[in-house]
Amino acid sequence: MQIWVDADACPIAIKEILYRAAERNRLQLILVANQMLRTPPSAWIRAVQVPQGFDVADNRIIEAVAPGDLVITADIPLAAAVIERQAHALNPRGELYSKENIRALLDMRNFMDTLRSSGVETGGPNAFSQSDRQTFANQLDRFLAKPQQNSAK
User: Fold this and answer.
1) I want to staple 68 with a disulfide (CB 3.0 to 4.6 A). Which of 25, 60, 81, 150 is the partner?
2) Which residues sit opposite 113 in a β-bridge?
3) Three-state DSSP class for 64?
4) In which order are the strands placed within the sheet that holds 2-6?
């Protein structure tokens, strides 16, 4: 299993948790972004820079992800594509995407997008909090403690 990170919008606090988890569990951690990223020196951690452009990082992750891998992303369409590829997806706020919840989340995302495009003010997500960080860390620990993941649930 490898951990892929949609790194352009991933909070620094989440990246730090992932760096420690990769070292502790000896798992490959690949951060994909359209900008240069600084990562700690490690045999387990690498950054991949992709060209600028809409969904370029997402497409790189989708092409490379293997069944059983984990992808960290807040991008619901990316999470849906990852699940289709029999991999797992975890939101930086600690929500584990699954076959059971991804359709409803995608429908809600599309509905909100339609509202915004018609001029309705929908607001954005709450500020990333210490509670979000802890929820993510706990969910990641639970996920990694399970027997080696080989297929998405």
Assistant:
1) 150
2) none
3) helix
4) 45-49, 28-33, 2-6, 70-72, 88-90, 96-97
- Alpha-carbon distance of 110 to 41, in angstroms, equals 39
Residue 149: per-residue pLDDT: 47
Tell me the whole-structure pTM to 2 decimals.
0.84
Distance from C-alpha of 88 to C-alpha of 150, rounded to nearest angstrom:
10
For residue 78, count other CB atoms closer than 10 A to its CB.
22
Summarize the confidence of residues 105-124 as an average pLDDT.
73
Residue type, 76: I
Distances (CA, A) of 15 to 31, 98, 125: 9, 22, 19
User: Between 125 and 56, where is the model more confident?
Assistant: 56
61, exposed or middle or buried, with CB in 10 Å at 0-12, 13-18, 19+? Answer: buried
Strand partners, 45: 29
